[in-house]
Structure formats: structure tokens, C-alpha cells
Amino acid sequence: KKVIPVQCMKEDKNVLFGFMADTVKKAIEKVRISKKEKIKAGFTFSFPVKQKSICCGYLLKWTKGFRAKGVKGHNLVDLMNEALQKKGLKNISVNALVNDTVGTLVAQSYKDKNSTMGIILGTGNNACYREVSRNVRTMNKQGHDKKHMIINIEWGHFDKVNRNIYDKKL
Length: 170
Hints:
The protein has 5 helices and 7 strands, in the order ααβββαβαβββα. It has helices spanning 6-10, 13-30, 76-86, 100-111, 165-169, and strands at 39-44, 49-53, 56-59, 92-98, 117-121, 125-132, 148-152. The strands form 3 sheets. The protein has a 3-stranded antiparallel β-sheet, with helices on one face. α2 (13-30) crosses α3. The two termini are 31 Å apart.
């Protein structure tokens, strides 16, 4: 865990992604992973993204005080992979872009394989859960052979409902 300095949040893509790549490099060095070992990584990105595939997503807008220039309109996975390359981490490749709820669920599932839900309650809030694939009616199942998948609820954007007196008091 590492707090991103405010200056990195406000500079440009090279400063922000460079900081993140430096953080990865320090973590890899700390646990003494060989630079010869190939590592496929997931990249948790906690901002509104238009995701085109598991390894392609574009920032829609910055939130939470971030405003680094040069990120919108670029594939976030490419930006992170480029930053890792510049820091000499040629053995690491980001091959999955996930939001924070999915990252939370995946991280917890290493500790407890029965974990079925990830929840974020912070500057924003959201949840995801593990679902049986055959129950997902909106997806093209052609070529999909997995029994389960993760559903990102995005309940933090559920703000189009009329508020009642309790909502207003809260």
C-alpha cells in the first residue's frame, strides 16, 4: 500500500504512472523476485473507465482530486506497461484492468477461496460479486467456458432515483 503524493495526482501521465511503476519496482525488490521471472499483473484503477476488453480501458473523467494530464484518451494498460518498461521492469506485463471492487475480491480470494463479494466504502462506494455465468443473460457466451464470472455492480452511480425524506436527512 502506498499513498500517491498530491503532486503526482496533478502533474501528467509520466509523473503519475512513473510513481506507480516505482512503487511496483520497490515491492518486487523487497520480496526479491528475479527480473528473469515473467509476471502477469492486474492493474486496479479506481476511476470511471470505458472498458473495451479485459486489457483495454480509457479514463472517462478524473475524480477524487486527481487531474493528471495526458491520461484521458489513452489505454490505461498501455500507460502502465510503458511506465514499467521505463523503470526496467521488462518482465512484468499488465494484462488485466480491474476496478477496486474486483481487485478487493481477487485479493481476498487468495486468503479465502470462498470469498464471493468485494465492497469499497471510501471516497466512493461500489460492490462486485461472483455469479454463475449461465445466469448472466446480457453477455455473449460464445467462447466463454468459465463457470463463474465477476459482476461489477457500479452502485455508486445509482443516483437517478427520487430521494425520500430519509435520504435527504442522511
